[in-house]
Amino acid sequence: MTSPAEDDEPQAGAATSASHLGYDVGRLLAFSDGVFAVAITLLVFSVPAPNVPSGPDLNARLAAALAEMRPSLYGFVLSFILVGTNWIAHHRMLRQLTFSDVPVLWLNLLILLGICLVPFATSLLVRYSDVSTAVIAYGGLQALIGAMFMLMRLYLAARGDASRVNVLLSLVQISGFVISIPVALRNIQAAYILWIAAFAAARILEARIRPDAPLRAPALR
Fold first, then answer.
1. pLDDT tens digit string along 48-73?
2. Which helix (H) or strand (E) is 148 found in, with range?
3. Is residue 83 part of a domain?
4. 3-class DSSP state for residue 209?
């Protein structure tokens, strides 16, 4: 006959395991949110304040200098929206997560690596918005971030997530940035249009598909 103490041991072990899983997932989400917050804050430094010397007609010259900053502001707004949208996608992808293993940690780090590089890529795009190399570098980075999201979604789907259709979100957005790379060599404005079109298509698709299904922790052996 099993003793009362022996009956309690599996329950205690299960409770301890659940506590550790919750702690690990909590750390992953807290660290990720911190990285997104820092990256989106650093974006403002890609917009340099105009340096207008004092003198006559200062208001007119400052207004002209601010008007010339429109490309910088466009680049800031574009990156702010993309980083913000990636944070929302990251939140939705992991909001039901109840396990944290080595592949999840590394895939998440790769996503965050791309997010950390967005302020640098934005500064490059703002300074050289009419140079194909800068446009290709920015588009390539966004494509890589989308690819990391796709890999994470595929891995979570393989672990029991029923919403594999969400991988389409990554594919749609990646396709716009990937196609824009050769397009930028011929027409930079067309590359920008492709970015906006792919982003809009991904948001329309996102509004039509159902939310992510809860992710289940792997069975303990």
1. 777 777 777 778 878 887 777 777 88
2. helix 132-158
3. yes
4. coil
The single residue listed with the structure tokens 């991988």 is: 167
Which pair of structure tokens corresponds to residue 93?
Answer: 């992808």
Domain that holds residue 123: 4-208
151 vs 4, 158, 184, 185, CA distance in Å? 46, 11, 26, 28
Q: What is the pLDDT of residues 140-185, one digit of tens each?
A: 999 999 999 989 988 888 877 545 566 777 788 889 999 999 999 9
Is residue 217 in a domain? no
Amino acid at 81: I
- Pick from 181, 185, 172: which is nearest to 89 by CA? 172
C-alpha 146/C-alpha 153 separation (Å) is 11
216 within domain boundaries:
no
Task: For residue 28, give both structure tokens.
Answer: 């992953």
Q: Give whole-number Cα distances, 178 to 103, 133, 151, 161, in Å.
A: 25, 14, 16, 27
Q: 């969400």: which residue's tokens? A: 166
26 contacts 39 by C-beta, under 8 angstroms: no
List of residues 6+ apart from 140 with CB closer than 8 A = 177, 181
Tell me, yes or no, whether 218 lies in a domain: no
**Rounded distance between C-alpha atoms, residue 103 and residue 4, angstroms:** 39
In this structure, what token pair is assigned to residue 160? 């029991």
Q: For 76-145, what is the HEC assignment?
A: HHHHHHHHHHHHHHHHHHHCCCCCCCHHHHHHHHHHHHHHHHHHHHHHHHHHCCCCHHHHHHHHHHHHHH
- Enter the pTM of the model: 0.78
